[in-house]
Predict the 3D structure of the following.
Amino acid sequence: MTTANQTAIERYRNNFLREVEANVEEGHMVKMCMQCGVCAGSCPLGPAWQHSPQKIFMMIRAGKRDEVLGSDSMFMCTSCYNCMVRCPRQLPITHIMHGLANYAHRLGLAPKGQPTRDFATLFWNNLIKKGRVNELTLTLRHYFRGGLVAGIKEALSMQSIGLGLLLAKRLNPMEIFGGHGVKDLKGFHAIIAKAKEIEDRKKGFSA
Amino acid sequence: MAKKEYAFYPGCSSQLKASASNYLVSTNSMCQALDIKLTEIPDWNCCGASIGYCEGGELPRVAINARNFAQAETHLPGQDIVATCAACWLGARESKERLDASAQLMKETNEALAAAGLHYKGEVEVRHMVEVLIEDFGYEGLKAPMKKSLEGLKIAGYVGCQTNRPFGIAGESFENPLYLDKMVETLGGEALTKYEQKVTCCGGALAFSEPEKSQKQIRDIVESAYDHGAEMIVTPCPLCQANVEVYQSEINKKQGTKFNMPVVYYSQLMTVAYGGSAKDAALDGQLIRTEKLEKIAGK
């Protein structure tokens, strides 16, 4: 990770905008922002952000690499697409936020222990394991992320909900033994591996 | 032969005994009444959902969606892909549009698919079940199989985010989409058209990772339904349904509210209006039971 980060720093020197354009999903659209602030006012998590999308876009242009890639802001995105449909310049803001989060995460610069960063990672790893999300193991792994004691406490506090879902036939305890999945798992994994290989090569993550 | 046939993409939550199994059961009942034949895309996989962004990059996400497309194209040629889950629809349609727009992405995606011996030609259409109902059947067409009216039920139409933005239903506005209200009215129910939280975000996946922030959203959504005299909320999205229903008890515990607002799917309302039993509509799949709807179903 550090190597990819060092390479990127050396390669783009004082031009963070160019780095974002080259390596971040939809990053080429960042320069279209005219700083109107509609995104900032449209975000349901607005009050929780360290920096609004508007600020993030200006910070990218100002070359504030460490601040942007270390910001918790992108992880506040609920993917509601409000900012995106309202943007008068039609920037795909939601996608840029996801792209920035992914880039910061891959470089190892995203805030450590940020709960949505951790959950998002858990989610992806859960779904690629069997090709379909295992809701039970995803939930349990999330509850036990902080260790056994914290996990038991959190699981107990949610036990009435769990029992309700069980009775409503919306939770299957047998999923703990593997559960739903695709049949051609080998093929599914081969597709992901190949896609990752191509993308990593393009974005400078492969050695 | 059925009136319409589609390649069905149920998604991870709409499997039996998963969190939206009530959506799956009621969708099947609704489709039977409308003479729709749904055939599952063989060996379909997860769409990656929005929250997959952090660890999964763009190409892996597009590639896994393209795997479903290739399967549908090969095994169910000519049939539109229909998703019931908002996130599945969004993930798949976003991937489709990106593939349509970029020959480079298409080339790389097919390179990835080739690792499993698959190829995507670029011919699928990706639609949401609500689009199918409105565009292929129309409100009048949806009335045809009706056996009962939902008369007297006050229903808040909670559209949420991802069935509304960024694609939405053609002809509807992002700020005040009317289709869910129109569907309720079609079934004889009373749509609470002034319900102002209809496109508010429930917090999505942050319900897990940042529960306080998400529960603030959910509180607004439920409270407003009460303010407008709603007897239940209806939604087209499985994450909206689960979040808004399941966390009411948590909010009650933490904030001293007394929420007990049923949250149902449009497919459950339709199944009941089409004469289905409570079981056909999977009303036993609610955490907060909807007695009024169960009563109509039992008539």
In short: The two ends of chain B are 31 Å apart (CA to CA). The beta strands of chain B are 4-9, 36-40, 81-83, 126-128, 154-157, 190-191, 232-235, 263-265. The CA atoms of residues 147 and 274 of chain B lie 5 Å apart. Chain B has twelve helices and eight strands.
